[in-house]
Design a protein that fits this description.
Layout: H1 2-14, E1 17-18, E2 21-22, E3 33-40, H2 46-55, E4 59-64, E5 69-75, H3 79-85, E6 89-94, E7 97-100, H4 107-112, H5 137-141, H6 144-147, E8 158-163, E9 183-184, H7 190-193, H8 212-221, E10 237-242, E11 249-251, H9 252-264, E12 269-272, E13 282-283, H10 291-313, E14 317-321, E15 356-357, E16 366-372, E17 389-394, E18 414-418, H11 420-426, E19 443-447, E20 453-459, H12 462-480, E21 482-484, E22 487-489, H13 492-502, E23 513-514, E24 527-528, H14 546-551
Parallel strand pairs: 8-10, 8-12, 9-10, 12-14, 14-16, 16-17
Antiparallel strand pairs: 1-2, 3-5, 3-6, 4-5, 7-11, 13-15, 18-20, 19-20, 21-22, 23-24
Helix pairs in contact: 8-12, 9-10, 12-13
Length: about 550
Amino acid sequence: MNKRLTGAVALAAALTVTGAGLSAPASAAPGATTEYTVVAADNVSAADAAAAIKKAGGTITATNETVGMYTVTAAQTGFVEKAAASGQLVGATHRIAIGKSPKKQQPVDVEKAVAAAKKGPKKPATAGMDPLDDKLWGLTTVKSDKARKVNAGDKRVTVGILDTGVDASQPDIAPNFNWALSKNFAKDMVDIDGPCEVASCLDPVGTDDGGHGTHVAGTIGAAANGFGISGVAPNVSLVELKGGQDSGYFFLEPVVNALVHAANNGIDVVNMSFYVDPWLYNCTANPADSPAAQAEQRTIIRAMFRALTYAHFKGVTLVSALGNNHEDIGKPRTDISSPDYPADTAYERPIDNGTCWDLPTEGPFVIGVSSLGPSLKKSDFSNYGLEQIGVSAPGGWFRDGFGTDTYRTNENMILSTYPKKVLQEEGTVDADGNITPAGEGLVYKECNAKGQCGYYTYLQGTSMASPHAAGVAALIVSAHGEKKGRDFGLEPWKVEYLLYSTAAERACPEPRLQSYTNEGRPAEFDALCEGGKEFNGFYGFGIVDAYAAVTARAWWEHR
C-alpha cells in the first residue's frame, strides 16, 4: 500500500497540469527527453509514418504495425504539437495512464471512490460445487450451478484477463492457467509502482502485485476442484494479459499490445475491467482542453478503436465493465474528475456525448456490463443507459438490503480469489499467513491436504460484474463452438447473439426514477431507467444466464 501511495506522490511531483490539460514536467531540463506513444493516420505506410516521426524530432524504439502504433523518444516539450500538425500522424500521447482498475479498498472506501490446450473431450465436461460456493450469490444468480451440470466449459476455450496480472500459484487458478499464451506487456514503473521486484522490471507471468486481475480471473474460471471457490466457467483456460501496472493504472501501449496478442493467438474472450484516466472521457476536441491535450486524446481514441476492431474481426469477444461513475453514459454529466492525477488538478469539462468516449466500454464491438446487488437492484455506483449497455450481472453492492439485516454487509459484495502478498500489504493477512482482525469477515483462507493455501476477499464494482458475463460468454463458446481446421471457437457476433438472447429479461423498477437516498446517497445518484422489459438502461437485454446459454439452440445450429 505504501508503495502505491509513494508512486502517486512521485508522479504528482513529476507532472504539472494546466487548466487545459497535461503539460511537460515542471523540472524539465532543456533538451530532456521522454517517451511517447504515436499513432499513424489512416492508410499511412510504416515508412511514411517513420519519416513523419523523425521530422517531428522523434526516435522510434518499438513498433506495432498491426495498429500503426509506435513507441517514440523525443523532447519533453513541443513534440506533441509537432506530431499533431503532421498529416501522416493522428498524434502523440505521453506515456501516461489511459485506464485504471479500482484499487482494493475496504467497503466504505470503495463507496467513497465512486470513483494452449490439446484436443478437448468428446462429451461436455461437467462439474460440481466447491466449499465456499455457498457465499457466491453471483454464481447462482447467473445459474452457473445449473449450467455446469450440462457444460462446465471446455479447456480449448481461452479467456484473456486484461488486467493487473493473475496469481497462477493460487490453488483455484493453477489448474486452469494457460502458461503458453499468457504474457506481461506492462513493465513496472518506479514512479508509480515503486521499486522493481526483478531486474528487468517485467514481473514474471503468473504473478499479480495488484490483486485486481486475480479477483477477476477467479470469478470467470476458478476450478471446480473441491477446494475454495469455483468460477462461472470452471473448466475453461485462463490467460494472463498483463496490461495494467501494479498500482492499478493502464497505459495505452500495453493495452493495445495485449489486445493484438489476444487477436493473433486465438483467444476467445477478453475481459476488460478497467476505466479510462487521466481523462474520464477521451474527447476529440473538447474546448475545455488545450490543443495538445485534444491531440493526445484523439491518439488514444484512434489506437483503441483500431485495436478493438482488429481483435473483434480476429475472433475475440470483448467484454467490459460499464463503469462506476453512477451516470447514464449516453447522457454524461460534466466531468469534474479529469485529469485525475496529479492530485487536485481536475477542472470542469462539459462532455459532448457525440465526440467523447469512455474507453474501452464505448469502443467498437464491446459488450458493456452493468452491476447488480443481491436484490437485483442496480448497484448505486454502476453506470447505466440505453446507449452502451449490453447485459447486467452481479457486481456486488455493500449497501444493498436497506431495512434488513444484510444492509451494509460484506456478503453483499463478490468473493473471489486474491494474492496472499497483496492481502499482507493491505494488513488483512499477517506475515505468517493468518487473517488479521482487520480481515475478519472480509478475507477467507482455505488450505488443502498438501498444505497449499488459497486466499479470497470481497470486492464490489462493475469490475466484478463484467467477469460474470465473460464467464457466460466462455460457456457459450464451449457449448456452441465450431471446429474449423485445427481451431475451435465461435465468431463474436454469435457469442453476443446468444449472450443477449438467453439473458433473463428484467423490466425497469417502479418508479423508474430510482433514488438511493435510503442508502445514504445524494440526489446525484438518482438514476432513470429507460426502455422496456426486452431492453432497458439498467439491465440491457437482461441478467446473464449461464444455464439458458449452454442449453439454447441457436438458429444456425443443426443438431
